[in-house]
Amino acid sequence: VERTLSIIKPDATERNLTGKINSYIEAAGLRIIAQKRIRLTRDQAEAFYGVHKERSFFGELVDFMVSGPVVVQLLEGENGIAAYREVMGATNPANADAGTIRKDFAIDVQNNSVHGSDAPETAAVEASFFFSEIEIV
Ligand code: ATP
Ligand code: MG
């Protein structure tokens, strides 16, 4: 089994989609082993997306991520990182496959409803960014 860090982004919490997205996660065979609804500070959002700080969209991305509550989650399952990215769908919902979270719920390439870790190393860093061991069960 493998863990991955998920964020249900502000465009999705705004539209009250947390439960619907969680049902896609669970239908994909992933277990939600930690979860909390929080509001990111600007410092947290900038640090979390630090790898993108040279990208043209970084400022808008940070503004978006602090614009409303997010639900941060730790997911666990067989090949959890790839399994979650598969059910998330492509970054741009216009390119996402049918039946994925982004195809069904995302608005555009920025307001794309969910984040998922992209590799084991980033998954571990992102998990410890939000959760301590006693919050994971
Ligand atoms: P995430 O890291 O959120 O799981 P991802 O790995 O599919 O998504 P990245 O390339 O890591 O996509 O980009 C991180 C986030 O930055 C995207 O999910 C999206 O919200 C935003 N983003 C990416 N590309 C663009 C773009 N061209 N314009 C605006 N925002 C973008
Ligand atoms: Mg990414």
Give a structural overview.
The chain has helices spanning 10-14, 18-27, 42-48, 58-65, 80-88, 101-105, 120-130; strands spanning 2-8, 31-38, 70-77, 114-116. It is α+β, with helices and mostly antiparallel strands. A four-stranded antiparallel β-sheet has the order 2-3-1-4. The longest helix has 11 residues, at 120-130. It starts with a strand and ends in a 7-residue tail after the last helix. Bound molecules: adenosine-5'-triphosphate and magnesium ion (MG). Homotetramer. Its cofactor is Mg(2+). One of its GO terms (cellular component) is cytoplasm.
Structural class: alpha+beta
Order of helices and strands: EHHEHHEHHEH
Rg on CA atoms, Å: 14 Å
Overall residue-averaged pLDDT value: 98
Main sheet properties: 4 strands, antiparallel
Strand content: 15-25%
Q: Any low-confidence stretches, pLDDT <50, length ≥5?
A: none
Shape: globular
How many distinct helices? Answer: 7
Helical fraction equals 40-55%
Distance between the termini: 14 Å
- Major sheet: arrangement of strands: 2-3-1-4
Strands, count: 4
**Bound molecule kinds, no repeats:** adenosine-5'-triphosphate, magnesium ion
GO biological process, one term: CTP biosynthetic process
GO molecular function, one term: nucleoside diphosphate kinase activity
EC number: 2.7.4.6
Subcellular location: Cytoplasm
